[in-house]
Write a structure and sequence with these properties.
Binding site for ATP: 96-106
Keywords: Amino-acid biosynthesis, ATP-binding, Cytoplasm, Kinase, Nucleotide-binding, Threonine biosynthesis, Transferase
Distance between the termini: 5 Å
Number of strands: 13
Strand content: 15-25%
Largest sheet: 8 strands, antiparallel
Bound molecules: adenosine-5'-triphosphate, L-homoserine
CATH class of the largest domain: Alpha Beta
Main location: cytoplasm
Subcellular location: Cytoplasm
GO cellular component, one term: cytoplasm
Shape: globular
Number of domains: 2
Radius of gyration: 19 Å
C-alpha cells in the first residue's frame, strides 16, 4: 500500500494578521505549488528527498523536518496505544526554502497528513484534526523558533484561516473573495524566518497598536460581509513590513508600481521574500505577473535564478491525497 499527499503554499500574515492570519493558494495553470510526501510500507524507516529544491535542504535526512514528523507521529501513536510499521518516505521538495510561501509548513503538513491517511487505511487508526494541527504547530515551531500557525493551518485546512486563542478550536475558517487573484512573486533568494523575526521590534507604539487592531478587525468584518473594497482598503501591515522590506531587494519599487496600476493590495508573503499582489481581474493579474517576472526576480549568489511568478486563486482544499495505491 502506498499513499502520496500534496500540501499547498500559503501567504502567512496576509499583511493585517501577523502570526494569526493565513491564506492557502494554488496557481490557476494547475502547477503543483507545494510539497508532496509519498509513503510506503518497508523493512526499515527511511527518507529520500527529491525535487527541484532538494539540494537546499540539510544533507543528513535526520535533520529534515519530515524525519522529525515521522518521529513525532510514531511517538503519538505509541502514546495512543496504536500499532505502527516501518515506512519508506519520499519528500518531493518542490518549494524553495526561506521563500515566504510556507515551505517548511508544506513539508510538515504533507508528512503528517500522509502518515495519518496511511494509518487510517492501514489499521483504521490516526488522529483528529485538532491533534493534527497541534502536531503541525509543534513541528513548525521547532524549525522557525516560534509557535505560529499562519502557514500550517491554511496549508492543512485550505482557505483563509484565522488563529484563535482557544486550544479547542485553534483555527477558524474565514470567508474570502472567490473572484480575487493572488499574484505570487518569489524572487529566487532566501530569507530565513528566524532572521526576519529578529529584525522586528520587541515593543510597538500605541498608534501602531491601534492601527493594527483596527485593520485586522475591519478586514475580518469585511470578509464576513463580503465587502471586498473595504477589506482590501485596510490590508496594511504596521507590524512587520517596514522593518523587513530592506531584506527584499526591489520590494518598495514593485509595491509603488503595482499600487499605481490599481491593484487591490500588495504585501510580503509571510516573512518574505515573496511578494503577493491582489487583483480581481485576470487580465490585470497576468499583466502584473509579467511585470514582476522582469522587475522583481533576482540572481542568487551562485549566479542562477530560482525565482518564479504564479497567478493564483485561493486553494479551498488544503492538503489532499493525490495518489492512493491500496
Ligand atoms: N523539509 C524541509 N522543508 C523546509 N525547510 C527544512 C526542511 N527540513 C529542514 N529544513 C530547514 O528548516 C529551515 C527552514 O527555514 P525557514 O523557516 O526560514 O524556511 P521556510 O519554512 O522555508 O520559510 P517560509 O515559511 O518563509 O517559506 C531551513 O534551515 C531548512 O534547511
Ligand atoms: N508569521 C510568520 C510567518 C513566517 O512565514 C512571520 O511573519 O514571521
Amino acid at each position: 500500500m502506498s499513499i502520496s499527499v500534496f500540501a499547498p503554499a500559503s501567504i502567512g500574515n496576509v499583511s493585517v494578521g501577523f502570526d494569526v492570519l493565513g491564506l492557502s493558494v494554488k496557481p490557476i495553470d494547475g502547477t503543483l505549488l507545494g510539497d508532496v510526501v509519498s509513503i510506503v510500507q518497508a523493512d526499515k524507516d527511511s527518507l529520500s528527498v527529491i525535487g527541484e529544491f532538494s539540494n537546499k535542504l540539510p544533507g543528513n535526512v535526520k535533520d529534515n523536518i519530515v524525519w522529525h514528523c515521522l518521529t513525532l507521529f510514531n511517538k503519538a501513536m505509541a502514546q495512543a496505544g496504536h500499532n505502527t510499521v516501518k515506512l519508506a518516505l519520499t519528500l518531493d521538495k518542490r518549494m524553495p526554502v526561506g521563500s515566504g510561501l510556507g515551505s517548511s509548513a508544506c513539508s510538515v503538513v504533507a508528512a503528517l497528513e500522509g502518515l495519518n491517511q496511511f494509518y487510517q487505511q492501514f489499521n483504521n487508526t490516526g488522529f483528529n484534526q485538532k491533534k493534527m494541527l497541534l502536531m503541525m504547530g509543534e513541528m513548525e515551531a521547532q524549525i522557525s523558533g516560534s509557535l505560529h500557525y499562519d502557514n500550517v493551518a491554511p496549508c492543512y485546512l485550505g482557505g483563509m484561516q484565522l488563529m484563535v486563542p482557544d486550544a479547542n478550536i485553534i483555527s477558524r475558517d474565514l470567508p474570502q473573495f472567490d473572484d480575487c487573484f493572488y499574484v505570487m512573486a518569489y524572487p529566487g533568494i532566501s530569507v530565513s524566518t528566524k532572521a526576519a523575526r529578529e529584525v522586528l521590534p520587541a515593543h510597538y507604539n500605541r498608534a501602531d497598536l491601534i492601527t493594527f487592531g483596527q485593520n485586522l478587525a475591519t478586514f475580518v468584518d469585511a470578509c464576513h460581509r463580503n465587502d471586498k473594497a473595504q477589506a482590501f482598503s485596510v490590508l496594511t501591515d504596521v507590524v512587520a513590513e517596514k522593518y523587513r522590506q530592506h531584506l527584499l531587494p526591489k520590494f518598495i519599487e514593485a509595491k509603488q508600481y503595482l499600487v499605481s496600476q490599481g491593484c487591490l493590495a500588495v504585501g510580503i508573503s509571510g516573512s518574505g521574500p515573496t511578494l503577493f499582489c491582489v487583483v480581481d481581474d485576470e487580465a490585470k493579474a497576468n499583466k502584473f505577473a509579467k511585470w514582476l517576472k522582469i522587475n522583481y526576480l533576482q540572481t542568487e549568489t551562485d549566479g542562477k535564478n530560482y525565482g518564479f511568478v504564479h497567478v493564483c486563486k485561493v486553494d479551498n482544499q488544503g492538503a489532499c491525497v493525490i495518489e492512493n495505491d491500496t
